[in-house]
Amino acid sequence: xxxxxxxxxxxxxxxxxxxxxxxxxxxxxxxxxxxxxxxxxxxxxxxxxxxxxxxxxxxxxxxxxxxxxxxxxxx
Amino acid sequence: xxxxxxxxxxxxxxxxxxxxxxxxxxxxxxxxxxxxxxxxxxxxxxxxxxxxxxxxxxxxxxxxxxxxxxxxxxx
DNA sequence: TTGTGACTTTAAGTCCGTG
DNA sequence: CCACGGACTTAAAGTCACA
Lengths: 75, 75
Known about the structure:
434 Repressor (Amino-terminal Domain), XRE family transcriptional regulator (chains A, B), homodimer, about 80 residues, DNA binding (chains A, B), mainly alpha, transcription (chains A, B), Lambda_DNA-bd_dom_sf (chains A, B), DNA-binding, about 70% helix, 6 helices, Cro/C1-type_HTH (chains A, B)
């Protein structure tokens, strides 16, 4: 499983959980709306700086965004 | 605490634990020798692709490299 | 509310070397 | 074995108008 896929999935899932739109999250994280969109569609491999800013916007830990549900199985 | 700092610390600590040189890890992860050095000195903020490749080279999860020991306190 | 293409600027990442 | 430098190529960061 690609790390981008894991990140994109966790990002979208957590954003929905918090009830935020891409626009609202973008504002919280100090990023552009379309950039969040790009990350969710796996256009880019985000840098850890961006992961951190998004994590703060979602009020979670950076590590949570890279955590794979099936980590124990794929290791 | 900066995410780069956390990453750099975890990277160096885990690499030492595994008994690998920067050169050996670079080879394992398919990265440049000097780049690993740069990451440990916090010159660059790595992309999640690089985090993932390094994690594989160290035989750990990507999330482990971004995990902060004092996460609960700094949140 | 989100996806997408086009675009420019900045930083990542490689490869050569040195002490 | 590692810190550090210069020069280089590629990918990400960041913004916009439009569907």
